C-alpha cells in the first residue's frame, strides 16, 4: 500500500509562529537593514529561540526574501489601480493619495523596501524586472496617451512616477525626522493638501 505523500497543511500554531517571526523580522530589518540584522535579534523580537526560528526558515535571507515577496504585491497595487479609462487628474491624484496612505499605514514595509534598493536590490532585482518594470512601462504609456490627448501638461511620465514615489514615501522613510521638525506625532501632517496641490498644478494642461 502506497503512503500518502501529500504535504500536511501547517497547523494554526505553525501559522501563528511563522507570522510572529515575519512581523518581528520586519521591525528588525526596517530598523537595521539586511546587513545589520541578525537572527538573534529576530528571535529576541519574536520571543522565540533561534533554533525555533530555523525550524520555520532556513536563515536570515529566507526570512528577508519572504517579506520582500509578500511586500511586492502590496507595493504594486496602488499603481495597478490606475485606470486608463478614468479621468487623468482624478486617477493620478488618487495614486498620490494611495501612496501617501501606504506611507502612513506601512512605514516599516517602506523602509524595508528602501533599504533593499539602497543596497542595489540584490534579492529583489528579479521581482523588479518581472513585476514592476512591465507595470511601470504600461502606466507610463497610459500617462503619455493622456498627455498626447491634451488632458495633462507635457511632462515625462517616468519622472512623474518617480516624483510621486519620492514625495509620498519620504513620509515613511524619514518619518522620525519629520516628527522632530514639525513637532508632531503625525508623520505626514498637511501632506494630503500639499501634495494634491503640487501635482494638480504640475499636471494641469496649459501650464
Short description:
The protein is an all-alpha fold and 207 residues long. Helix content is 74%, strand content 0%. The chain folds into 2 domains: 8-57, Arc Repressor Mutant, subunit A (Orthogonal Bundle); 60-203, Tetracycline Repressor, domain 2 (Orthogonal Bundle).
Question: Mind explaining what this structure looks like?
Answer:
Helix 1 crosses helix 4 (60-80), helix 4 (60-80) packs parallel to helix 7 (125-148) and helix 5 runs antiparallel to helix 10. The chain has helices at residues 12-36, 39-46, 50-56, 60-80, 88-105, 107-118, 125-148, 157-173, 175-182, 191-203. With 207 residues, the chain is mainly α. It is elongated.
Record field, number of beta strands: 0
Number of domains: 2
- Give unreliable regions as ranges: none
Q: What is the terminal separation in angstroms?
A: 77 Å
Rg calculated over all Cα atoms: 21 Å
